[in-house]
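Q&A FORM
Asked by: J.P.
Topic: structure of threonine ammonia-lyase

PROVIDED:
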Amino acid sequence: MSAPTLVTVDDIRSAAERLRGSILRTPLIPAAWADPARPLWIKPESLQVIGAFKVRGALNAISRIDPAARRRGVVAYSSGNHAQAVAYAAARFGIEAHIVMPEETPEIKVVRTRSHGARVVLCEAGQREAVAARLVAETGATLVPPFDHPDIIAGQGTIGLEIAEDLPDVATVLVPVSGGGLASGIGTAIRALCPHAEIFGVEPELAADTAAGLRRGSPVRMSIQERNRTIADGLRSEPSELTFAHLQHVLTDVLTVSEDEIRSAVAELAVRARLVSEPSGAVGLAAYRRHATPAGPTVVVLSGGNIEPALLADIVGASAAVGVDQGH
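REPLIED BY: S.T.
REPLY: Here is the structure written out as tokens.
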């Protein structure tokens, strides 16, 4: 079997042109309270219109579908942020969207997906791909996968272009890893434009399949029940053959963080940066706190901010109750 064809920085530049004016070019926000030896900037993709980076890949992928096929609509499966992104992008193109979401998806993500006019189909854990395939067969719509597609990877990679343009001397980039589309795209752009930078994926300890797979040199599978243990509901997927090949090529390593460290990072972002992050979006900051990453300018990608208000209040309240000085 031949190796997958990898996305290039030129593919990402083309995606950036297609997305121009349709997404927010998120700033790099300096974290003045961070380690002076590792000056920290936060890339808040939580500020995108759907609250997460996924809108980049969804808009890029749907724009690339043949117009005749696009009129038949799109199907997606997602735990939340890709669902909202495809629903939003479909509405922008005036087409139908059928979104398959696991039953355990946070209600806020289901409600927001429906708010864009999409039809949401809830399914049992581990069944979303099969249900999506059935919908494609029934409707004739085009599947827009959450990470396993070159156009999705290229769209997410536009974040890396922006980092390279805004902080060309970046030394370290910390990126959440789930299915791997985000880290694949950002890693491709940074590796091409800032070749001396170190690029680390970050996973929860309870869903660290990619860390184990990269150490072994081939994918490591975890059951959905194992991966569902983490509070980081957006990081419960596994890389595909395509994204795993990218991650092998562009990542320095994958770092892992605990559930308590994820919660602490959510609180730190809220209290010190005044940024709302879902647990999945905060793992980069958790890794910055836990691991001795290289000295020099560091960027943490805050991938999304779609968190249930009650959970955010619980995390921040618990942090305050135990007297944690976030960002000491």
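FOLLOW-UP: The mean pLDDT is 93.
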